[in-house]
Amino acid sequence: ALRPPGWLPQWHCGVRVSSNKKLVGFISAIPADIHIYDTLKKMVEINFLCVHKKLRSKRVAPVLIREITRRVNLEGIFQAAYTAGVVLPKPVSTCRYWHRSLNPRKLVEVKFSHLSRNMTLQRTMKLYRLPDSTKTPGLRVMERRDVRQVTELLQKHMRRFQLAPSMGEEEVAHWFLPQDNIIDTFVVEGAGGVLTDFTSFYTLPSTVMHHPQHRSLKAAYSFYSVHTHTPLLDLMNDTLILAKLKGFDVFNALDLMENKVFLEKLKFGIGDGNLQYYLFNWKCPPMDPDMVGLVLQ
Predict the structure, then answer these.
(1) Residue 118 predicted with pLDDT over 90
(2) What number of H helices and E strands is found in the chain?
């Protein structure tokens, strides 16, 4: 996530305590070509802004933001895309997270979710049970030889959105080739070796605090999915099955792109927080979530 093609070490910006060199703040920028309506703009994606708990509300974050802005400007780039849970002036779009239980027992035990009224744990587990195998013919793990076709599928699909990345084969290889506990991508291979669809999700585990049994929560986040032959509902149902088989506890997705097609039908529950999309130093009309085709890991 921090070292895609074109990354620069000076765009990984940290703050350390002078006495013991302890890292107490961090912010990163990575290069990206982004389509905004009809304009293709070379910009950066700002991510991983974090400040030590004891230094929050002490104006450390604005200092980090000003410094990363200065460093990016030195490379001749003056626009950025970023997301945040807080509302700042002015979001280009507002998306909502949805969650699909894969391991309901664990999610209830760690208080990630709770039992609905008139629901027992057994009934909840039955409600969210998934088949043991996928049903889409030709569905398999993405391999390096698939990069060209996946790039073509992605580029064609991204044209329908008003905010979307423009990725070449090098970027697609970096972001989509499967790596354990980082990214999983599956393709659907049709007749003659032609790829018709693909689906992907990235891993983001969370630490569970003060629990006698569970130490972490393994969450999958929907990345990019493209369908030309397989119905999206079927493709995403198989994606849930694959995530469950790989030991994930929950599958998360934003209501952007075409995701609203499957969220309720596949038993996703709406989350309690919004994710705002922002553009720095670029003015454009706001857009609906289903016109957003950009996912920041």
Answers:
(1) no
(2) 6, 15
End-to-end CA, the chain: 7
Give the residue-averaged pLDDT of 212-232: 97
For the chain, what is the radius of gyration of the CA atoms?
Answer: 20
Rounded Cα–Cα distance for residues 78 and 72 (Å): 7
Residues 293 and 118: beta-carbon distance below 8 Å = no
- Provide the residue count of the chain: 297
167 forms beta bridges with none
Which pLDDT score, from 0 to 100, does residue 85 have?
94
What topology is assigned to 93-275 in CATH?
Aminopeptidase (3.40.630)
| Overall pTM > 0.90 | yes
250 close to 219: Cβ distance less than 8 angstroms: yes
Output the pLDDT for position 91.
98
Q: What does the alpha-carbon distance between residue 217 and residue 106 come to, in Å, rounded to a whole number? A: 8
CA angle 269, 272, 276 (to 5 degrees): 110
Q: Where do we find the tokens 């070490």?
A: 9
Largest CA distance in the chain: 63
CATH code of the domain occupying 9-78: 3.40.630.30
Q: What angle do CA 123, 126, 130 make, to 5 degrees?
A: 160
Instruction: Give residue 77's identity as a one-letter amino acid code.
Output: I
Whose CA is closest to 279, among 292, 297, 266? 292
Spans of all domains in the chain: 9-78, 93-275
Whether 9-78 and 93-275 share one fold: the answer is: yes
